[in-house]
Amino acid sequence: MTSDRWGTRSYTCGPFQNNVYMLVDSARREAWLVDPASGSEPILEEIKTERLTLKVILNTHGHLDHIFHNRLFKESTGAEIWIHSEDVPFLEAAEEQGRMFGLQVPSSPPPDRILSDGERLQFADLVFEVIHTPGHTPGGICLYTPGLLMAGDTLFAGSIGRTDLPGGSYSTLIQSVRDRLLPLPDATRVLSGHGPETTIGSERRANPFILQPEAYGSIS
Questions:
Q1: Rounded to an integer, what distance in angstroms lies between the CA atom of residue 162 and that of residue 78?
Q2: For the chain, which residues make up each domain, given as ranges?
Q3: Residues 42, 22, 20, 169: is their CA dihedral positive or negative?
């Protein structure tokens, strides 16, 4: 989604094939970075080459693959780290999360701003609404502006986020998707934390976890 003033850039990075997104305000030469994964270092060079000012590092949730380079981008640019309060413990345990997977994960600086459900975030000439979508993690969030949903690991093309890690809940995630995301217009583009782009309408019609959630886990 682009306008004369702003645009969204996407990058697939690291061993977990994360989708990292950068919102760029071309008028002010400012940017936000969403979920700086392992392997996202070239984005920093892009920011420097284009003389962008990175204002925000936004974590849709606190799993290691989405916060891996919080410290690199924070220390290199001074950008603020934003995350939901219920996922702050994941930031604090970044190195411990890495050890669970046999990886060395840099510690994350503490957040500069705590996000809450319904909060409105101004970027360029549009406003994103914070939608709290727990289930993948307790503090998972999506960002919505008319026509575009940045879904983190809540909703994927043909799937949903895994719920077998600490803090995950299958029934909670199904409820989040049903109650918070499916009411959005069918044409809404969905940019997920992994995998291809989709739309709300496509997932409403064909996502098996939406059509038959009881077949994949307990929703009691």
A1: 32
A2: 6-212
A3: positive
Contact call for residues 159 and 173 (beta carbons, < 8 A): no
Cβ-based burial of 101 (10 A; exposed 0-12, middle 13-18, buried ≥19): exposed
User: In whole angstroms, what is the distance from residue 44 CA to residue 33 CA?
Assistant: 10
Structure tokens belonging to residue 127: 């406003």
Instruction: Specify the pLDDT at position 170.
Output: 98
What is the spatial distance between Cα 78 and Cα 61, in angstroms, rounded to a whole number? 20
Among 57-61, 62-66, 121-125, 215-219, where is mean pLDDT lowest?
215-219
Name the class of domain 6-212. alpha beta
Sequence-distant (≥ 6) Cβ neighbours of residue 144 within 8 angstroms: 128, 129, 131, 150, 184, 188
Angle between the 41-49 and 70-77 helix axes, to the nearest 10 degrees?
A: 20
CA distance 76 to 86: 26
Q: Fill in the amino acid letter for 154.
A: T
Q: What pTM was computed for the model? A: 0.95
pLDDT of residue 59: 98
pLDDT digits (tens, 9 = 90+) for 158-203: 999 999 999 999 999 999 999 999 999 999 999 999 999 999 999 9
Q: Which long-range contacts (CB under 8 A, 24 or more apart) does 18-23 make?
A: 18/65, 18/66, 18/193, 18/194, 19/191, 19/192, 19/193, 19/194, 19/195, 21/150, 21/191, 22/46, 22/47, 23/123, 23/124
